[in-house]
Amino acid sequence: MNKPAEFTGFLYDQGDRIALLKAVLDELSNPDTDFSIIHVCGTNGKGSTSAMIASVLKQLHYRVGMFTSPFIGNVTNGIQINGQNISSSDRQAALETIEKIMQLDRFKGQKLSEFEAEFVASMIYFSRQKVDYVVLECGLGGELDATNAVSTTMYSIFTKIGLDHIGILGDTIQEIATTKSKIIQPNNVTIVAPNQRPAAFDVISKEAQSKSAHLISAQETKVAESDVTPQSQLIQFQRGKISGKFQFSLQGTYQIENVATVITWLLDFVQRRHIDVDIDRLLTDALANINVPGRFEELVQNPKIIVDGAHNLDAISAFVDTVDAKFNQFHKVIITGFLKDKDYTDCVELLTQIHDVSFRLTSPDNPKRALSAKSLQATFKHFTQVDYPTFSDPISALKATVQEVKHQKDTIILVAGSFYLLNPIRTFIKDGSFQNDK
What we know:
By secondary structure, the protein is of the alpha/beta class. 38% of the residues lie in helices and 18% in strands.
């Protein structure tokens, strides 16, 4: 086999990337037109919403592709069919196909970023594997995001939009929502998550109207949880005359908004596709045992270790709400670390409001963008007057924390912050190193 294809780093706003990607897809005979696309965009909740929709479609016996980012664990996790990662050989074959295309005179001297190449590779793979539907998660933004190069979509789904990637996507909710709203395709169905900020909802609504897209708000889908245990809860829902209940395994309180969005999509989908199905049974089968990597995911039971990729203000706020709601009676030790280009100061202030908590501070595994543990320590001290311990890397922080709490029955370990913090810790635990090291 040839040496691995190489693609460059970050080219998000370097010229007309969408035109280039459309040309690449055209050269490949437009593989993105071989299936129906459900395009998921937003600031928080994209990954969970995408995973839930893909699981529901799988239960309906469709062949379902899913493209998500950032990948958790191995890079092959970002491209899946019916929950199975793309093989390294299939991924490599797709990337080599792209590399040959980029050597054509038509593209001479132009390069694709790593993310753009992964996106195109997913389109090639899904076409070759003859999937029925693709759940396509936006990367950074909307209008200029690589995923917006697709020709057409069946649905545009907007999860909660907040302030993230400020300076790249915009400086206000309205500016960020404007960028994201551009994924709406003419005449598609556009679904908006509940409790969307009014400025964001107005922007999406106007864009949908301008594209003759059918707008549906999940605000009218009422959802409540009961019989809550550490493993699951009963979800009851109502939208208009339709009501039901089902078992649901995702733990973050923020998942209630996401599941309302998924129910809203599903009720529209089965109507449009004329599918006669027991909605309660379908949702239970699809969501009772679903696990979304890195989203309030329990990795170890003793001591209890939970990881959550809360890396911006809205996500941290939801994380704090979940921790206080579900683990108020425990002492919490939180391992955390942020990228320096995030709004980490406000995130730290929110984290310090958790009841009965202490912190272990480290630096995410991203040398160029990571905030140093010492800088984070100073920020925590500003709010708490405490010098929390610092560690040179995430694994050192995990090992020390586990040793510290292993005999404390009422203590849990939470890992929250950048995915560059979660990934090494999650991999360390998942590959068995954690058990061997204990």
